Amino acid sequence: MYRKPKWSREGVNWPNRQSSRFIQVGDQKWHLQTIGEGPPLLLLHGTGSSCHSWAGIAPMLAAHYTLIMPDLPGHGFTQTPPESGQSLPGMARLLRDLLTALDVEPAFVIGHSAGAAIAVQMALDGYIRPQAILAINGAFQPFKGLAALIFPVVAHVLALNPITIYAVAEGAKDRRRIEKLMRSTGSVIPEDMMARYRDLFTAPGHVAGMLGMMANWNLAPLVKNMAGLQMPLYLFCGSKDAAVPPASAVDLCQHVPQARFINLPDLGHLAHEESPEAVAAALLAVLTQASN
Questions:
Q1: In the predicted model, what is the mean pLDDT of residues 111-134?
Q2: Distances (CA, A) of 277 to 54, 57, 237, 260
Q3: Is the pTM of this model over 0.90?
């Protein structure tokens, strides 16, 4: 078992620490944060991140909604599930179980990157019925061509290789490597957020959880079924996103009738961490409109 981030060590400086709690649901132990008042709003972070990703926009959203912000399975301080729970449908099921245990039916869901794909999967499977799903640089499109065959195989090999996992964790201790990784997304994020990513990536358990998710990810069935989505899907896209090109969201709108494209000028993949005020304002505008 790889070492996960420790709440007594890495968690000491965690944003909104006072709002954190741990909950056991079946065989799965979760870390989540709950903050705010109003209708429940579920926030799902992206691959390799944790609920800390929402720290910048949380205070602004919490003035209007009760935020439920879990660390995804295998990420942050949440336990890594068996391989069946690391796939897209598997994560959707685990999150359904968490919401059931919390007795929460989210009015809206905001998902970043892969978190947006999980939100849509949950809706298609009938686990949630939000008024709308808001995707920040949603990662819905699978790799094309040869990459579609090679990437999952490589991720699976890496996830099974302890040497690789420990090498990544050791390399993350070099601040410059984390900074380079974050810049490669097209975003420039604050130093305190950068420090939290260093805390995560220096823990082999977090790295293993991230690679396990990537190894078991298959978006093709999701994209095929997305035309049947029953609620609005708002695609907030950073114009400088170097990880998920905005053009992919434009393409998605062509075959998903419920999808709407919203441009986030001059922002990258981590738009909500890069400019919390601007992204929160854009989200709240849509949430207000969708509530009426």
A1: 97
A2: 12, 7, 16, 21
A3: yes
